[in-house]
Amino acid sequence: MGSNILITGAAGYISKEQAKALSTLGINVLQLDLTDEKAVVQSLLRYNINIVIHCASSINADLALNLITALGKQREASREQTFFIHTSGLSAFYEKTGWPQRETKDTGPVFDLEKQLADSFPIRKTDVAVIEHAKAKGVTSFIVIPSTVYGKGSGEWNKLSVVLPVYIQACISQRAVSKFPENTKVSGVHISDLTALYGRIIQKILQKEPLPSGTEGYYFALAHNLIWWEVLDQLAATLKARGLVTTSDTSIWSDDEAAAEAMGIPIQFVQPLWNSGENIVRKKPDMIGWEPAWDKDDFLGSIDDEIQAVLELSKAKSSLIDSLFESAKG
Question: Which residues form the NAD-dependent epimerase/dehydratase domain (predicted)?
Fold first, then answer.
């Protein structure tokens, strides 16, 4: 049996205009309500889908669980192995969201610790639910954890990530660049390098090569380090050169509420998304041959391109911000 792959959420919300644009590339577009388990099962069986790359939400576990249930049904019908690649979030592994400060390697007991701390942060809870439900349904699962994604996408629809563009938009709106008092270290990955990691996993699956999965299937997409103040200093200088801010100096946010209002996100997600450091070591991606092309110097040298992409495209066509507000209600 051949492999049909379903990708959810990578292009933002599906609309008629988007469906038309993607269809011209020979891509079959499914306008599917992922909250409707019956519809999800019927669609995966109808199109013989045996691999799902899930990018729609790292917070709403129900979407992932419905897809896994459907893959379980597909496995029973086809008697072929099925695979679920879940996109998580690095904020699940930040000290400010309750993760231990010690160094974390993706070759270590990540699942055991996530399970212990699952109820303290929604993304961890989803990760655990995905792995356990996949095991119960006989579906092979993987967890891909992107770091701060940057770069303009080359697809036909959603070409922007969220974290950096939202910050740039807030700076332009305020006519100034603000930062947090702590100078934290995070990690970054260019969108092309991130998609290359998904590609390596898919390649291994199709070639039927051994691949760590399930509780051992964590893949941290960390290409290089970033120091927030260094990034924001470069951003301020570049915005000033474009006449988009009044000064190349950076100031300190007065409080999290001011940052949340400027960026248009719930206050409880300000620190996890823009002011949390991490102590993560990637191993698994290297083991399967992932070689990121972009490094920190490349990123800093591309800040003007990041600004231009925001000016051209305005906002990402993504469900992430909406999912943050939904989570905040809970």
Answer: 5-204
Whether 218 contacts 143, CB under 8 Å: yes
Rounded to whole angstroms, the Cα distance separating 223 from 290 reads: 10
Picking from 226, 231, 214, the residue whose alpha carbon sits closest to that of residue 147 is: 226
Level-2 CATH architecture, domain 4-329 = 3-Layer(aba) Sandwich (3.40)
A 10 A CB-CB count for 16 gives 9
The tens digit of pLDDT for each residue in 194-220 reads 999 999 999 999 999 999 999 999 999
Show Cβ contacts of residue 229 under 8 Å, excluding neighbours closer than 6 positions: 179, 183, 250
Contacts of residue 221, Cβ cutoff 8 Å, sequence gap at least 6: 144, 145, 146, 147, 189, 193, 194, 197, 282, 285
Specify the pLDDT at position 23.
66
Q: How far is residue 196's CA from residue 154's CA, in Å, rounded to a whole number?
A: 13
- How crowded is residue 165: how many other Cβ atoms within 10 Å of its Cβ? 22
Reported confidence tier of residue 319, pLDDT bands at 50, 70, 90: low
Provide the residue ranges of all domains of the chain, joining segments of one domain with +.
4-329
Give the three-class secondary structure for 181: coil
